[in-house]
Design brief:
The protein has helices spanning about 30-40, 50-65, 75-85, 105-125, 135-140, 145-180, 200-225, 245-260, 270-275, 275-305, 335-355, 365-390, 400-410, 420, 425-435, 440-445, 450-460, 460-465, 470, and strands at about 10-15, 20-25, 185-190, 195-200, 230, 265, 315, 395-400. The chain is mainly α and about 475 residues long.
Amino acid sequence: MKKGKAKKGFRIEHDPLGEKEVPEWAYYGIQTVRAIENFPISGIRPIQEFIHATALIKKAAALANMDVGKLDTRKGKAIIKAAGEVIEGLWHDHFVVDVFQSGAGTSHNMNANEVIANRAIDILVGRRGDYSLIHPNDHVNMSQSTNDVFPTAMRIAALFAIEGLIIVLQGLGKTLLEKGREFDGIIKSGRTHLQDAVPIRLGQEFTGYAVSVERAGKEIRKEADRLYELGIGGSAVGTGINTHPEYRDRVIHHLSELTGLNFSGSKNLIASMQSMGDFVSLSGKLKVLAVELIRIANDLRLLSSGPRTGLAEIHLPPVQPGSSIMPGKVNPVMAEVLDMVGFQVVGNDMVITLAGQAGQLELNVMMPVINYNLLQSIKLLTNVIKVFHERCLAGIVADEGRCREFAERSLGLATILNTVIGYESSAQLVKEAIASNRPIRDLVIEKGILSKKETDSILDPYRMTNPGEDER
């Protein structure tokens, strides 16, 4: 096909749809240019881990194709070097396709194929766009389809990103446990339905938070383990068309060596093409974590409310002024941002769920939006947990006097009297305490229900938080 003449600073490339001008400096090519024109949607480019994962697949595929004798050694080595540079972090600014793009991620795959092809052409001292040297489809994409490359890259990228999340989550859980020990001797009023309840120790509350966070982290790790099973080698629909019989095992072997991760092949390549279930499941566990973090953040906002007109049982570190008009006001901003990220992750999970069920027949074409939302959830959670841990949780201090005052005034203390005077009489006592605005303890002594010594023992809030200790 005869090419037209390009403007200064551009080269002409062609594809089955015709010709396009491509900037001379660009490592990407004509199909990427078409994607730029077609999808000016969000302005968001692929997340770094996903570019890294895609380049790893291209390098592993070139190695595998060389192993089985399909790819010329000179071309293969140039592709391997070019892909290696992308893995090292070079040329990421040439990955320019919007995350909201063509179904199944064909535009991203071709963006990668073109960048690696043109960089390999440079290495062979050719001119960018001269695909007679290295062709994006014939050589870089050899034995592959977007349909097996994209979901494999999704799995690898998610595993890369999850490691950072697990690390910060472990740190959060550890500090929550440390706060549990630090606050273990501080008695406070429990609250159910935001009303007075039986006493609890502040440390018990924080230990409960730690257990919830640790459990959520274990569930995320368990779901992430399912991502080690790769569908690469399935090619277009899972049948492995245009691949060498040994290619699948070789490419998985090379991916394992390149990443240090113990990958295995999918037990059914057809299922791997059809189902996004592993990503939906992982997103669901991220949502569980988000819900737990939202709950904890809201508790901390309530417990620190005030400082004069709220609960004020704990004090959060002041990190910035809280008002443009009210002098001295300090807000729980780190808990607030934790909430906002949590809401975003819950929303992302809904997108992933809808996209996961939107696949038809042999392929789910909604992979790009699943990938973006999943990686965004992981990255947002990782970043917000890190700053929340460092700038809020680690610096929380308790007001022990305030906590004890509420505990001693709590109407929930009457619960322990059920075994002494019965539920009905205890309820009458609570009504009288409310009407007279007096502590339960004073009324018990005044009415002769218990002696002062008995009252001090039975209505001891600390003892009520560990009722099993006496029995032991």
